[in-house]
Amino acid sequence: MRRMQHHFSGGVGLALVTGFFLSVLLAGAMSPQDPYRQEMEEQLLPPSWEHLLGTDDLGRDLLSRVLHGARISCLIALVSVNTALILGVPWGLACGYFGGRIDLLAMRLIDVLLAFPSILLAILIMAALGPSLSNVMVAVGLVHVPLYARQVRASVLVVRDLDFVAASRAAGATPVRVLARTILPNVLSPIIVLATLGTGTAILEAAGLSFLGLGGEPDIPEWGNMLTTTRQYVRTHPWVSLAPGFAITLTVLGFNLLGDHLRDALDPRTRGRL
Amino acid sequence: MGRILLILPTLWGAATLVFFAAHLAPGGPARSLLGEKATPEKLQEVVHSQGWDDPLLVQYGRFLWNTFLHFEFGKSYFSQREVSEELARCFPATVELATAALLTAAVLGVGLGTLASLKPGHVGDMTCTSVSTLGVSVPVFFLGLLLLLAFRNLPMGDRHDLALEVESITGLRIPDAALAGDWEAVRDAARHLLLPALTLATVPLAVIARMTRSTMVEVLQSDYIRTARAKGLHPARVVLVHALPNAAVPIITVVGLQFGYLLAGAVLTESIFNWPGLGRYLTEAVHNRDFHAVQGATLLTVSVFLLVNLAADIACLWLDPRLRKEFR
Amino acid sequence: MRLHLLWTRLALASLCLSPSVPASAASVLIYGRGEDSKKLDPADVTDGESVKVAVNVFDTLITYAEESAELRPGLALKWEGSRDGLNWIFHLRPGVRFHDDTPFNAEAVLFTFQRLLDAENPYRFGGAFAYSPSYQMIESVRAVDDLTVEFRLKYPAVVFLPNLAMFPASIVSPEAVKRWSKDFFRQPVGTGPFIFQTWTPHEKLVLKANPGYWDGKPGVERLIFKPVKENTARALQLENGVIHLMDGIDFADVDRLKQAAGVIVQTAPGMNLAYLALNCETRPFDDARVRRAIAHAVHKPRILKLAYHGYGQAGVNPLPPTVWGYHAGIEDWPYDPARGRTLLQEAGLAAGFKSQLWAMPNPRPYMPQPKQVAQVIKEGLKEIGVQVEIVSYDWNQYLDRVANGEHPMCLLGWTTDNGDPDNFLYELLDRDKAVKGSANNVCFYRNDRLHELLVGAQREFDPEKRRQGYLQAQEIIHQDVPMIPLAYLPLVAAHSTRVKGFRLHPTGVLRLHRVRLEDE
Predict the structure, then answer these.
(1) ipTM for the whole complex
(2) Which of B45, B290, C324, C379 lies deepest, with the highest CB count within 10 Å?
């Protein structure tokens, strides 16, 4: 029963994520209109055959905007997850492998960073960098760095003293080589799980920052941005909020379900129990 | 006890981070406040009035001194008022919202979790699982809009009807109105509080429900519950009187830990409902690049977050002697 | 599960079903507007939202008639000028007291004007005095006796009396200014119909009735100004009775509001202007050909249709036709991207260029939907190869930065202070007004010929000769295109049917002491 349910939710996650990537790839071909084009005669139209999701307050086609929003969210996810990986993974590897005082200090720093609620840390970074969509991506990435570092460090601690690592070290490999060739491949699966779950979170947090108006120009079809610029219409013209709102929800849900599924599938300790 | 000592370096680290965030801004704080083309005189004037022309270490020392010994963050550049004065005004609004959300989340979360635990795998359980999965996937800001759509009779935002004036004693609107005996104002405030509190409650509700479910499943399988059932006690009595109190400790811990999240999570909720609290103050300050205000609001939130979490830990130790031993 | 749902439903129902009835006996009028005030010191503000509050707290020596910009006695009962127009005697209204219970007298008038005119005055407000050129004709002010004041002018000036009716010349309480000094902007004390009570930024600004007001006790006990940024949200709040009176209506909402039960929509001819300012100090806008190219790329009919929903009139000159002296003979530069591209080519910018278009974040009376306007302009500019990024700041910051000349192009507008052409042309385009930090001439346009004409007209007492001067000025401006006038708007306000005695004023300034609020 549980197992079936588990496969089911993993399947739903996979389907949602596939849908997301399809709209990323085909946004250009599938959108009926230019997402920026305004039709003054067509403001706030309800969904119809011509505009499947309706139009917004500037007469822009919502389906086109939501589809292009997927591209922007994909970009957000790529930039922020990669920022977090590029900074967080080496940090965690180094701390876990070398240990000692530097490790202690670095872990204290991570404790401080994790003591901040993540949205607060992101807002603080935005305050320093200034509002724009690219800064939103960087801020979300930076917020995730300590999470990745901590996870990688923990995984490294597990494999560090195993025989094959010792063998590699005995064979005279430099620490960088040991880390890259021997340790990294063995801590890869938790990183993949974290990155999948992190993609959903990154999209969610970036949309949140945009919703607060920190995402730069108001006409960018980023989902959080779309929600915040039209939220005054929620009671009079609800479709304007529903389209981007469901787009975020389904995407985040997809990545979360898929991430959970991957975690269970890749983690040997939970494999047998479900 | 180690936990209490750990909070001090963490606070210090947070203060340091908050301080240097302002100075990391491209071109320095004055430049980002006034823009690219500010005249040198104006720049000079602001730099001087805000004390940004002293050596960085002196500024840092002064910042720590004022922050931790006087609870002062300087004047907001835009409103020309003391940041601490403005924080004192906004903070109660956030506390009221977070408290209401916590109560909602605790009551609904424990209820839902308990129901789910009665028959694992059945409808109640599935509901619980779906609600908690959805709870962490639906963005708070979209959920708020959905609730506005669903409950059209409730206000779109604000904390109360401006025409109803109530003397501020606690700064919390509902207790103040109740103290004044103005039931009209109490009801008005409750109407305004309902949707924001419900919105903010979703994430903690999901967490609390999950925790309650897993703890209760364990408790319900224990011997003494089987005994109670075997004695023919009413099932409701078994659950409410025998099982739930035994699952209380982990649940209370989780509830306590959620309060800190609520204070921080209020940023988005306050923005949706135009709630005049700390979160909205912070958002405005970031928009204006009003660094003293940003520093004050961030540090206050982080401190409260840390203190509340600490309090939750201590309460948990106090409730459960077994844990006390482990901690030593 | 079901039980819980039921409980929540019951709780919700009890809250939703019973409509809230304001029970308090005191009548409270809630005024919804697009933004908060910036400061409340009348000498230190230029933005409409601050003025809106200031005129209800303060009085001026001379005031306007209720429905026109004609002058009427205010704190001065009567006044007379000498033959050469250089000496003016004002007889003050006796028995008036400030809200702090200090007496209003010649001393207070003296104090107010010294504070305005002397930059070294110890009680000077924070910033520079943006309106100082409007009062630069004043040589000295003297108290003849307790209730008589004499103004001595440097040169005869037609705009002297109208400018005394403008809000910067509001009489402030000397005691309060001394007491609050730099904080006077948030503790304003005047003689006006309403007394300042509290101000919670971005939330509410509360005034209470001045029972001893010389022109009669106000019709409501309290007056609350509430900022609600989004127009549609504000309109909904009016329909739901959360606010009683609002300005800044989206024209898209006018029809719905007219239909709504319990709501009255009022319109009146306005004296305002919405425009696109080109910063003539920055490249490439220092070249008149580039500015004209931009003019050819702005699709005004589209702006009117999209952002003004057919209300309003396309702008041609920097003052509206409702103000005398408007040049009806000037023909506007038509929307013609091809011509625009040619002009850019002539200016050596065949490849176009990149720039920024600044747009205010919130609705203004002359521009209810600035973002939409900016969008249309952005698309038009694309047609001539000019790529712009739309930039927006918090309103207060926007004004500061624009007055500082940081923008290449910005949207802005103007509502008359006194109904005189001088208040548009001189105020918005004279070189005297292009001082960084306090500029109203945000085009930073400096034309000596125009300056001569405008200053000449200020000293000309023959109305026909003045008119000729202003017509010539408009021709120069039309050729030089420092700004692109976008629209003139009628004034629109909406209020609950409970609100009685509300009238729009062409200056857009609303004194609300005659407004009453009837019970439901």
Answers:
(1) 0.90
(2) B290
Token readout for B13 is 């680290």
Confidence at residue B36, expressed as pLDDT on a 0 to 100 scale: 61
Whole domain around residue C119: which residue ranges?
58-174
Pairs of residues, one from chain A and one from chain C, whose beta carbons lie less than 8 Å apart: 29
> Is residue C481 located within the same domain as residue C499?
no
Is residue C483 classed as helix, strand or coil in its secondary structure?
Answer: strand
Strand C148-153 and strand C87-92: pairing? antiparallel
Q: What's the number of CA atoms in the CB half-sphere (13 Å) around residue B9?
A: 12
Asked whether the beta carbons of residue A58 and residue C233 sit closer than 8 angstroms, the reply is no
Q: What's the half-sphere exposure (Cβ side, CA atoms, 13 Å) at A215?
A: 27
CB spacing of A232 vs C372 below 8 angstroms: no
Confirm if A257 and A10 have CB atoms less than 8 A apart.
yes
User: Do A76 and A137 contact (CB within 8 A), yes or no?
Assistant: yes
- Cβ-proximal residues to A240 (8 Å cutoff; 6+ apart), any chain: A44, A54, A56, A57, A62, A230, A233, A234
- pLDDT tens-digit readout, A27-48: 888 888 888 887 767 888 999 9
Kindly give the parts of chain A with pLDDT less than 50.
1, 270-274
Q: How far apart are CA C173 and CA C180, in angstroms?
A: 11
B98 and B45 share a domain? Answer: no
For residues A96 and A157, the answer to whether their CB atoms sit within 8 Å is: yes
Compute the distance between CA of residue A167 and CA of residue B219 in angstroms, rounded to an integer. Answer: 48
Listed by number, the residues of chain C in 176-235 with a beta carbon closer than 8 Å to a beta carbon of chain A are 230-233
Contact between residue C502 and residue C494 where contact means Cβ atoms under 8 Å apart: no
User: Which of C333, C338, C355 lies closest to C288 in space, CA to CA?
Assistant: C333
Nearest alpha-carbon partner for A168 in A180, A182, A156, A187: A182
> Measuring CA to CA, how many Å separate B317 from each of B251, B256, B322, B326, C415?
13, 13, 8, 10, 66
Q: What pLDDT digit, counting tens, does each position of B263-280 carry?
A: 777 999 999 999 999 999
Q: Tell me the C-alpha distance between A184 and A223, whole Å.
A: 35
**Is 1.10.3720.10 the CATH classification of the domain at A4-273?**
yes
Q: Which chain A residue's Cα is nearest to B140?
A: A208
Beta strands in chain B (DSSP E): none
| Residues spanned by the domain of B179 | 90-327
Of C444, C424, C422, C423, the residue nearest C433 (C-alpha): C444
The letter for the amino acid at C235 is A
How far is residue C40's CA from residue C118's CA, in Å, rounded to a whole number? 20
Is residue B17 domain-shared with residue B65, that is, in the same domain?
A: yes
C496, C484: one domain: no
Q: 0.95 cut: is pTM over it?
A: no
Strand (E) or helix (H) holding C245: strand C245-246
Residue C433 CA to its chain's centroid (Å): 16
Q: Is residue C248 part of a domain?
A: yes
State in Å, rounded, how far the first CA of chain B is from the last one: 9
Number of domains present in the structure of chain C: 3
Contacts B–C by Cβ distance under 8 A: 94
Domains in chain B: how many in total?
2
Contacts of B301 in chain A (CB under 8 A): 117, 120
Tokens 């482990």, located at residue = B326
List the structure tokens of C207.
């005034």
C89 bridge partner residues: C80, C150
- Is any Cβ of chain A less than 8 angstroms from the Cβ of C313? no
A233 CA: distance to closest CA in chain C (Å): 7
The minimal CB distance from B161 to the residues C4, C22, C126 is found for C22
Q: What is the pLDDT of residue B38?
A: 64
Q: Tell me, what's the pLDDT at C26? A: 65
Closest of C413, C375, C170, C162 to residue C270, by C-alpha: C413
Instruction: Provide the CATH number for the domain around residue C28.
Output: 3.40.190.10
Q: Is C202 left (phi over 0), alpha (psi -120 to 50) or beta?
A: left
Chains with ≥3 Cβ pairs under 8 A against B? A, C
